[in-house]
Amino acid sequence: MASDQQIDMFGDGLSATVSEDFDAEQIPTSASVPIPSGVYDDLNRLKAHCDRCHRCELGETRTKAVVSRGNPNADILIVGEGPGQNEDETGLPFVGKAGQLLEKILASVKLDSEQEVYICNIVKCRPPNNRTPTTQEMDACRPYLLEQIRMVDPKIILLTGASSVKGLIGDKRGITKIRGTWMEWENRLCMPIFHPAYLLRNQSRQKGSPKWLMWQDIQEVRAKYDELRGAASSN
């Protein structure tokens, strides 16, 4: 199938539809083959494609693709940057030290990562030496994330770190400038927050420190979550 007959999912929207002659089996082979919205009917099929994906060079060095964990019907979706060593070995996102801190952050406002949260990453394979994913790698993997968002259909998206913000909504500002700010993207509420790994490198809890700011942000997230749930239950 010629590339001009395919629908480009690297744009800003989630509204593309599947062409009748789209060959889903081509998806894992090359980033030159766009992935239209709606091509996946469930998250298990998406995971199966991620497990054998070679849309970028990260597929050559991974141990396991790291697709998601948590509740696929959650109202809160958390987007990380990319897998580290622990994640690459287990196939699950946020299970190392940064993941343990994320669990504590969520628990501090009584959010259960298995029931109320769905966790995924901008890229599904570990970049060598835990380096920052390249723009090309994020672009190649972004259609998978867009499909996850479409199927989970969260009310709130938390973007951990600058790469997550850039990779999903294209905002290139530093995380310290935009963290804790609600943004609207595709009719969804998004909030950039510090990546837990950054908090591990900044242990101070004094007022104005990253950990103190994270505490303010997660409380705001909890309040918005309760507000949205209350509005939904009253309709």
Descriptive tags:
single chain; Uracil-DNA Glycosylase, subunit E; 6-stranded mixed beta sheet; 37% helix
Structure description:
The protein has helices spanning 43-51, 85-90, 97-107, 135-152, 162-169, 175-178, 196-200, 210-234; strands at 69-70, 76-80, 117-121, 156-160, 183-185, 188-193. The chain is α/β, with parallel strands linked by helices and 235 residues long. It has a single domain, classed as Uracil-DNA Glycosylase, subunit E, CATH 3.40.470.10. Strands 1-3-2-4-6-5 form a 6-stranded mixed β-sheet, with helices on both faces. Residues 1-16 have low confidence and may be disordered.
List the SSEs and their pairings.
Layout: H1 43-51, E1 69-70, E2 76-80, H2 85-90, H3 97-107, E3 117-121, H4 135-152, E4 156-160, H5 162-169, H6 175-178, E5 183-185, E6 188-193, H7 196-200, H8 210-234
Parallel strand pairs: 2-3, 2-4, 4-6
Antiparallel strand pairs: 1-3, 5-6
Put the structure in a nutshell.
The chain has 235 residues and is α/β, with parallel strands linked by helices.
Could you tell me the CATH topology label: Uracil-DNA Glycosylase, subunit E
- The gross shape turns out to be globular
The biggest beta sheet, please?
6 strands, mixed
Average residue-wise pLDDT: 90
Task: Classify the helix fraction into a percent range.
Answer: 25-40%
Name of the CATH class = Alpha Beta
Low-confidence stretches are 1-16
How many domains? The number is: 1
Individual helix count: 8
* Largest sheet: spatial strand order: 1-3-2-4-6-5
Give the total of beta strands.
Answer: 6
Strand portion, in percent? 5-15%
Which structural class do you get from the secondary structure elements? alpha/beta
